[in-house]
Amino acid sequence: MPQQKADYADDTEIDDELDRLPDDETVEETVANLEERGFDVIVVDDADKALETVKSQIPDGVSVMNGHSTTLEEIGFDEFLSEGDHEWESLPDQIWGIDDDAERQTARRESQTADYFLGGINAVAQTGELVAADLSGSRIGAYPFAAGNVVIVTGANKVVPTLSDAFDRLESVAYPLENERAQEAYGAESAIAKQLVYRRETEEGRTTVVLVREQLGY
């Protein structure tokens, strides 16, 4: 069953100063710096608009994979990918239909080269860098190169002033929340095992950031 941030946030201590919605001027500067670094950016007001925007970015007939993202769950994308009316090839449905563990792991690795890979991010520096981490790397492995196209959806609450602040947010906001989620979902702790600093997109049009003016994800 999909989890929402509210399911475990109340049991988690985080640095609230690094989980606040920025003002309009900060959003505008962040967007300009992301675009200067080669990212396409679309700013939307809420989760419903975010889902519609994401759907509009993905053409019919392509393969689609998503890394685990509370944000994608909150906007309804995971449910739409699995059950919605679309003409995409849903790789998660194929992967989780495989009974053999080794075959399923191989399919997960191959899915990193999907035509469209969707996921979240843990921090957005106002200076234009994106920072994310996870335990296995399955969520962020496609971002740098493997996937044909990348769509990253993030709440504006992840915008922080500097790259240093982005690292702090990863440690003091994202990790505590993910660790709590992992324990509830899997009965095991998480870890910041594999970390990505996405400083620039060098392939024009490949990576789109959908920035939502709401408190979403962590």
TrEMBL record:
It holds the Pfam family LUD_dom. Coiled coil: none annotated. It comes from the Archaea. Residues 27-184 form the LUD domain. InterPro entries: FTHF_cligase-like_sf, LUD_dom, NagB/RpiA_transferase-like. PANTHER family: LUD DOMAIN-CONTAINING PROTEIN (PTHR36179:SF2), LUD_DOM DOMAIN-CONTAINING PROTEIN (PTHR36179). This is Lactate utilization protein. It comes from Halorubrum miltondacostae.
